[in-house]
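Need residues for this backbone.
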């Protein structure tokens, strides 16, 4: 299956004591982003192994939808909120998906190769 989705992965590190407050403040911003045109996924998950780390996974249907997201209030307010609680470290990267397939073939076998045409 061919597509051109854009995936963003990110980590945010904050003082672990700030996590509950940060997640409460960011919930309406996450909910707002999920309503944006072209947003297919937008999720924040606490890392169970690194105290104070949040993993972010986003999936956008196009560069245009991602560009609009970067111009939207939800994105701008998210950055301000992260800075307000004291962002200690962050990393982010985006990926353009050019081919997508299931992990398992019709027999239930996991496949590392891209096996369909």
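Answer:
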């Amino acid at each position: 299956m061919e597509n051109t989705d854009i995936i963003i992965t990110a980590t945010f590190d904050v003082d672990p004591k700030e996590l509950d407050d940060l997640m409460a403040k960011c919930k309406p911003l996450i909910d707002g982003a999920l309503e944006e045109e072209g947003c297919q996924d937008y999720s924040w998950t606490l890392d169970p192994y690194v105290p104070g780390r949040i993993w972010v996974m986003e999936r956008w249907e196009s560069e245009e939808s991602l560009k609009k997201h970067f111009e939207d209030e939800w994105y701008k307010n998210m950055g301000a909120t992260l800075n307000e609680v004291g962002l200690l470290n962050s990393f982010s990267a985006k990926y353009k998906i050019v081919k997508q397939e299931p992990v398992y073939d019709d027999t239930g076998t996991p496949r590392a190769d891209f096996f369909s045409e």
